Amino acid sequence: MRILVATDAWHPQVNGVVRTLTKLADAGQSLGVEFSFLTPQSFRTFAMPSYRDVRLAMPRPARIAKLIEEARPDSIHIATEGPIGLMVRRYCRQRKLPFTTSFHTRFPEYVRARVPVPSSLIWRALRRFHSPSRAVMAATPALARELGERGFDNVVLWPRGVDTHLFHPRAIDLCLPAPVFLSVGRVAVEKNLEAFLDLDLPGTKVIVGDGPARAALEEAYPDAIFLGERHGEALAEIYAAADVFVFPSKTDTFGLVLLEALASGLPVAAFPVKGPRDVIGNAPVGALDHDLRNACFAALDISRQDCVAFATNYTWEASARAFVDSIEAVGAVLPGRNGAEQARFVA
Question: Which of 41, 67, 145, 175 has the greatest CB tally within 10 Å of its CB?
């Protein structure tokens, strides 16, 4: 089976959408599924307003059609609601082709953090974008329920995974005053990092990641350690060396970093909001509290072994199977394709 994924988020961006799609493709090999990607790398791009590190594509209809036809997919999935997603949606609608979509980003909250646009207008636009989709894939049951309540049709569950071969406990010393409170992710206004950096905590606060707010936060919080982007083994070692993972965001739909932290034996401190609440639930692997400082101290007493055991329930293989099963269940296979052929994996 060949699946073409259209996405406005792609390398060199470092975010949950890119990591999810990359891991999905890797895991697809064991299922005999070939993933290819239609990304900004095929088009001229421009810097996104308020976030110049993210570049948006300027796709042309003829170029989109050519790339899709060259890919010869059995199924088309639209991962993002940006210019590429919109143009691929148009291609499918004009030709009456089935497609699926996924919901990764809470754009109403993301936009509201930057400009005074009513959330209702953004939600209306998102409903319209996803309405022709055979299946709108959501990362957690709570998000799926919320989308249904907001008028989204055909919402299905697409759980996430974690690479436990990379993220696991190990003896690492950062040579920083303990305890080490760590946050990993995009350094941007919607991540609410000030809520973490303002806390009166012992030890050291460490921020891993980059983004438009980094320079201002480094200046405002000189006692915190900003390490910039880290990847692969270097990132995994930082997780393992910390004592608590602090997740101050209130807008994330899931938060892959939560699973990476837990797989590394790192308990979570977060607000009791949809992202961390959906991942952790009532499991004894995190402290969720409206007082984030209380959550940080409570997390220090959580068993690291319990965190590791919890993370083993999430695999990318299961995530990929759920993705493919949803496509097949809703009949989102293009005319003339049976979706059953086995193909060489293409990264």
Answer: 67
